[in-house]
Amino acid sequence: MPVVFAFDFKKALAGVVYLASSPVVTALDRYKLGKLIFLADKYHLVRHGRPIFGDYYWAFEYGPGPQHILNMLREVIVAVDRVPHGEWAQRLAEVIELDRRWENPRIKPRVRIEDLQDSLSVSDRRALDYVIERHGKKDFDELKAMTHEMVAYRRAWGARGRKRRAPMKYEDFFDEDPEAIAGTKAEMLENYALRRAFPEPRGL
What we know:
Elements: H1 9-21, H2 30-48, E1 57-60, E2 63-66, H3 67-79, H4 87-95, E3 96-99, E4 106-109, H5 122-135, H6 140-148, H7 151-158, E5 166-167, H8 184-197
């Protein structure tokens, strides 16, 4: 069974605002945001054995995309002047605003990152800073070309058959990645096996 992580909604909110607040990141729409989120999760995973956000990734024609984050962002975009239906999307709409002068609305922060960044660990912020510095100024086409060459994307997209998307595997994020630290993949697999064998008790 492929490794899965629990999606961390609070970190997702903070991560979106963190990226949108950076003066380095240019022309941030939902497509570029998805790429930067993926790159930050990947960078953190191969160094620390866990992603930042724990989202579920799909390989689309335009590249990797985090399912939960893109879904709630899409709902905010479609809502226009209405309140989004989903609770997550409603909360997202409270912390970002959209510049709708663009065909793909640009994402701007509505709150200060200081109000949310406690949700992010030191290593989370370092990974985001790394991605911002390396990729924040790249446009969508550059990010698309780069992520299309990554093993995790190529494997998923190549196995999709006639489908328009295919699930990506966290196990594949490590392959051919010079940032990967030796032993981290084995640690991730071991921790996942432990989580499955000894799940945390649910509240009564």
